[in-house]
Amino acid sequence: MLRISVRSLASLECVSSENCNIATLTDSLFQQKPDIRTRVDILCKEGKVKEAISLLHVVDSSHFGTDSSNIYDRLFQGCIVKKSLADGKRLHVHIIKTGFSPGVILRNRMLDMYAKCGSVENARQMFDKMPVRFVSSWNTMITGYAKWGKLKDARELFDKMPERDSISWNVMIAGYAGDGEWGQAQKLFGQMHSENIEMNEFTFGSVLSVCANTRDLMLGNQIHVHVIKTELQSSVIVGSALLDTYAKSGCTEDARHVFDKMPERNLVSWTAMISGYAQNGYSEEALNVFCQMLGVEVKPNEFTFASVLNSCATLPAPEAGKQVHVHVIRNGFEFNIFVGSALLDMYAKCGSIKRARLVFDQMPMRDDVLWNAMIVGYAQNGDGEETLRLFKQMLQEGVKPDHITFIGVLSACSHTGLIEEGYSYFDSMSRDYCITPRADHYACMIDLVGRAGLLDLAEDLINKMPIEPDAIVWSALLGACRIHGNIELGKRAAEGLFKLEPLNVVTHILLSNIYAAAGRWDEAAKIRKSMKERGVKKKPGCSWIEVKGRVHAFVVEDRSHPKTEEIYFTLDRLAAQMKDAGYVPDTNFVLHDVEEEQKEHMLCYHSEKLALAFGIISTPPETTIRIVKNLRVCGDCHAAIKFISKIVKREIIIRDASRFHHFKDCHCSCRDYW
Fold this sequence. Notes:
Oligomer: single chain
Number of strands: 6
Strand order of the largest sheet: 2-1-3-4-5-6
Number of helices: 36
Distance between the termini: 79 Å
Helix content: 55-70%
Structural class: mainly alpha
């Protein structure tokens, strides 16, 4: 007989007289005259575990016969499925009161119930008092500890096991892997291998998750060899883990090879492939795999949607994003806060800030991640006033800001030239919210004062930083020097960057451009010569535009597009109209020592202008045109696009390397401050 007191389990009332519903249910079942086991099965299958247990108090236990263990086992299984600890304890009380002595298998089931329902203490109490323990008993207890994060207790029990099977090893490795203790998981896997313990798909799945999270491609390759030797490459668990390892290590071709060879794919494998493409910058491929997934009728989950929405944001592909949004609604994830944050971020990064706000307003619950996404979205889109208004609303609703919140707030101040407000928010971080400013926050402040031409103040901020300035900080100062043509301070900023990132192409280009803008062509040439000698290559400017679900890319003076003739004709026509409206090309942005006429020609066909012309000829009138550029929009293109927006009567949204520009009626949302 079990030696666990009824009082220690729960002060539960014995159900000697049940309500009318239970009595009616019991009478109905008796009229049909099935045996007690069948009746219990019927109720458990219907999810009526409480009613099934209550049935035990109405039916005389003599009805159980030799089926007692099976009936109790079925009821405990029902408690596990329902995650009902209270019903499990109630059943345990009944067993004690009836004097029934459970065998090892039923004791294991009871132990499993306590462990899976979260009462590890009761599970350990049962385990310690078990007269006989099988390996499965030890495994159940270790699994319970691992499931609830008690890895020290799990390991202590694992080390005391008189004998272990592969499940014992797998549980510990999976526990360490799931808790982020990668080194312990790898060490245990090595020990398992050295002791010649048989490994299965669960072993490889767990250790491959370690390889994926640590980007340990060497170990991943070794395990791949073991997988082939043990003929487990057809396992969907192993295949999914393998492709995730390759994808997270940047080897998307290897990941795709594994994916294509899988005889069976589940939601995990599809999501891993989509996520792998998205994380490695292959956004179009991620969207294609998502479409294939829908084609074979695999239902996406929140992680699938988050990855594919991130791809839509990166391209950006707002039309594809809208279609994904439809699938989000169809699959019932529109109010999922994880998916909602990804949706909001996608719309914000596509320049559809109104749609982003609509998603934000429709969410029934908002966490700090959602608030931050909306605040940063407004800041990136140049709406400083709405950024600060939303920040105040966030505080009023009792949501505590974090370091990401203040990056959005300070960026908004920087992009709109709010110097006093910026200093006020910066000081409040440590004073009011106990947030120590990081390098990112100092970079925002340096950008704020630097863009306003207060370069001495920017340098003073760097000198007084309590932490070492990083590349972001020096880049902010160098960018400000580029805007205002401060050569000497620009050199000092570049020197700081060269110490941290000697091969950073942006530093070389910015310093070269500072010299070129000042007419110091010899020094500019020296920088470019140094780049060539070091093998530092400039990334070419490129602009993208989505039209009818297809993304088109352009580089400067690009003539590879099928509609090149129409594009150039449109640009030449617009150039004449712009000059009639008062536009004058700003040749200061041509950083080459050539004649003025040639400079004007070089300005005409920058990548963003080519993308814009293609958008004008390929979309209906009054349609908003959205373009992405990998570099900062040059001053001349910025001025030209303001004129074009008025001529063609369209809103033009350009996302460059630092922010969004919303052009409309010859005005830009950045107020010419970027």
